[in-house]
Fold this protein.
Amino acid sequence: MNNPIRTNLLSVSYGQHQALNDVSIEIPARKITAIIGPSGCGKSTLLKVFNRLLELNDDIIISGEVFVDGQDIYDKGVDVYSLRKKMGLLPQKPFPLPMSIFENVAYGLKIHNHLGKGKLEGLVEHYLKEASLWDEVKDRLHAHAAKLSIGQQQRLCLARGLAIEPEIILGDEPTSALDPFSAERIERKLIELKKRYTIVVVTHNIQQAIRLADYVVFLYYGKVVEADTADKVFKSPQSLMTQAYIKGEFLDEVWFDKEARLINKVAQGEGI
């Protein structure tokens, strides 16, 4: 499927706060999509919608459609467990399970499969290698995961996520808590993994988005300002707001009015 995730007029509100407003986007398969925008613009909310970590309650209202592999995931009767199994999650801060390095990776394998000890050990090794962690931990697999460095813990979380064989990897600012060296290792691994997985990364770091992204969604206070290939967004953005954000300029409501006036001028044949 060319676009494994697609939204149509998606809106989310927390009480009186409108977090997302009529978001219609398509996430391309086996590419890295970066969702960019200032803090509080709805990036993490959008990510949580994809795997239904943002569930309905009295304070949260979700409208519109969200399709994963062609199925509207908010339809009644959707198997949320199966949906989440399709998605590996890399959080902002790593959260290894309170158990050994080995058991962190084996946990999901045991839940989803009936495996003998020999096969389980082989798969744990495989996924630790996939996350570029095996060589650093192979001699201490039964040590507590909390003894790992923060960067190693994040790669362990990646190995644990890959072990459930997802189709999609979601990263919510997955390198923001890491030192530059550890962040670079995660970035290199994501670029390698996109050959087999669809990857969606939330980041406020423009330089990281430039390094990683094949496709970009720029959100500004719940609205999609621009969504296109990374080459077009970063080299020839169509929106004045996108141009300003990439340059690091301050954005406020005035930008919406300024851009709307220019669009109206063009529509009326006045030019800019």
About this structure: The first strand starts at residue 5 and ends at 14. The radius of gyration is 20 Å. The chain has a mean pLDDT of 88. The chain is about 40% helix and 25% strand.
